[in-house]
Amino acid sequence: MTQDKSKKVETVKAQPIPTNKLPEKTYIGDVLIKTTVGKYKFQQKNVAAIELLLFEDKKIDPRDAIAGARAIGFLSACEWFISTCYDIEGEPVTTRKLNEIVLEVPHLLRLVQAVGRGSVLIDCHDGEELVEDSDDFTIKFPLPLVDGEELKYEKVVHVKRLPIGWRHTPQYLAAQSTKDWVKINVDIITQYFEIDGRKWTEEELRSPGVVDLRVFNVVMRRLGKYLSAG
């Protein structure tokens, strides 16, 4: 008998803070939207998908050979990402406010890792066991559990990766020479991934609240495996 390995639950959540006083947190489903650090309450804003790519670009060590013009290093990139993705008590997050709060690294990482993350169920339809290897998969999001009921899912999203011929395009070579990794990722995602039968546009990736960040995170995982293997 052949074992069905197509269904698996993948949980992508922030790591717990190693302290006796965990911050208060509020969830919608499994997506963290509020967290309290000390006396300060952080709340996620509607964020454009492009910000996740910018964060990946910015967190590269500027001294690294692959660093582009945006690279500012990991901790500085985390501060930028938090200021982009959160409000504090309804007000914008500023560097001055972050310095006032004195966030320790575990708290900083928790805020960063919570953006667009949550538990998802991924069905691979091409025989692969991991979404990083799959070119045809669906993503389902669990509804909040109710006592006595089985786990239910909502919003099934179908993702397909098309054959990528980007290595031979002038756009890729130009981006590679300038180390503009955001451009590389945007070009590939908008040209070679279909979500529910259509492609995202760059305008959608740049528009806050338009692209579901949970879906985008999974697509980034698939693309990251492809790029690292290439």
Structure description:
There is one protein chain. The protein is an alpha+beta fold and 230 residues long. Helix content is 34%, strand content 22%. The strands form 2 sheets. Strands 1-7-8-9-10 form a 5-stranded antiparallel sheet. A 5-stranded antiparallel sheet has the order 2-3-4-5-6. β3 (31-37) and β4 form a beta hairpin. The longest helix has 17 residues, at 213-229. It is globular and about 50 Å long.
Q: What do the pLDDT scores average to?
A: 80
Spans where pLDDT lies below 50 across 5 or more residues: 1-30
- Residues in helix, %: 25-40%
Structural class: alpha+beta
Principal-axes shape call: globular
Query: Cα distance, first to last residue?
Result: 35 Å
- For the largest sheet, list the strands in their spatial order: 1-7-8-9-10
Strand tally: 10
What is the beta-strand fraction? Answer: 15-25%
Rg measurement, Å: 19 Å
Order of helices and strands: EEEEHHEEHHEEEHHEHH
Specify the biggest β-sheet. 5 strands, antiparallel
Specify the number of helices. Answer: 8
Brief overview:
The protein is an alpha+beta fold and 230 residues long. It has helices at residues 50-58, 74-85, 95-101, 105-113, 170-178, 181-192, 202-205, 213-229; strands at residues 7-11, 25-28, 31-37, 40-44, 86-88, 91-92, 119-124, 136-142, 153-161, 193-195.
Keyphrases for this structure?
single chain, about 230 residues, alpha+beta, 5-stranded antiparallel β-sheet, 8 helices, about 35% helix
Question: How would the blueprint of this fold be written?
Answer:
Elements: E1 7-11, E2 25-28, E3 31-37, E4 40-44, H1 50-58, H2 74-85, E5 86-88, E6 91-92, H3 95-101, H4 105-113, E7 119-124, E8 136-142, E9 153-161, H5 170-178, H6 181-192, E10 193-195, H7 202-205, H8 213-229
Antiparallel strand pairs: 1-7, 2-3, 3-4, 4-5, 5-6, 7-8, 8-9, 9-10
